[in-house]
Amino acid sequence: MTDNSDMIDFVRARLAEEERIAQAAGGDSWRCPADVPGEVHDRSGGIAFSVRNFGFDQHIAFQDPARTMRRIETSRVLLNEYAEVAGLDTDRPDQDFRSGRAVGLGFAVRQLAAEHAGHPGYRARWLPRFIQ
User: Fold this and answer.
1) How many CB atoms lie within 10 A of CB 27?
2) What is the Cα gyration radius of the chain?
3) How many domains in the chain?
4) Percent of the chain scored above 70 by pLDDT?
5) Rounded mean pLDDT of the chain?
6) How far is Cα 70 from Cα 76, in angstroms, rounded to an integer?
7) Cα torsion for 68, 101, 123, 78, to the nearest 10°?
């Protein structure tokens, strides 16, 4: 059995980094006013960004700090569920519900870790299993 705690710690640390960045950006929702293309505004109406290339404003606004904070929270729920059964996430799991749950949640957590594959702390052994 393995406990996969190093992978859990890695993902928790990346989520904490993202949370700090989103909070530093104000934690607010952003929007693109139709009357000023290329601008991204926060809740105070101030310009958060002004971009010239088409589509960048919409993408930036879609990735606003408030949305990031919601994604972090849902990722933490999934990570906490996995932490309860991570020791059962093995290459040869038992044929029971808890083991199946561990492998399924492990696949999802490996996906979360893979988002940060370029980070120096990422380990290749965390690559998601069952890739076709």
Assistant:
1) 15
2) 19
3) 2
4) 92
5) 87
6) 10
7) 20
User: How far, in Å, CA of 28 to CA of 41, rounded?
Assistant: 10
Backbone angles phi, psi at 26, to 5 degrees: 105, -20
Whether residue 132 is predicted with pLDDT greater than 50 in this model: the reply is no
Kindly state whether residues 18 and 82 are assigned to the same domain: yes
1 and 43, same domain (yes or no): no
Do 16 and 72 lie in one domain? The reply is yes
User: What is the model's pTM?
Assistant: 0.83
One domain for residues 54 and 13:
no
Give 114-125 pLDDT, tens digit per residue. 999 999 999 999
**Residue whose entry in the numeric block shows the structure tokens 């998601």:** 128
Three-state SS for 46?
coil
**132 in a domain, yes or no?**
no
Q: Looking at this protein, which amino acid is placed at residue 38?
A: G
Q: What are the structure tokens assigned to 7, written together? A: 């992978």
Amino acid occupying residue 123: R
33-69 pLDDT, tens digit per residue, is 888 888 888 887 777 667 777 678 788 888 889 999 9
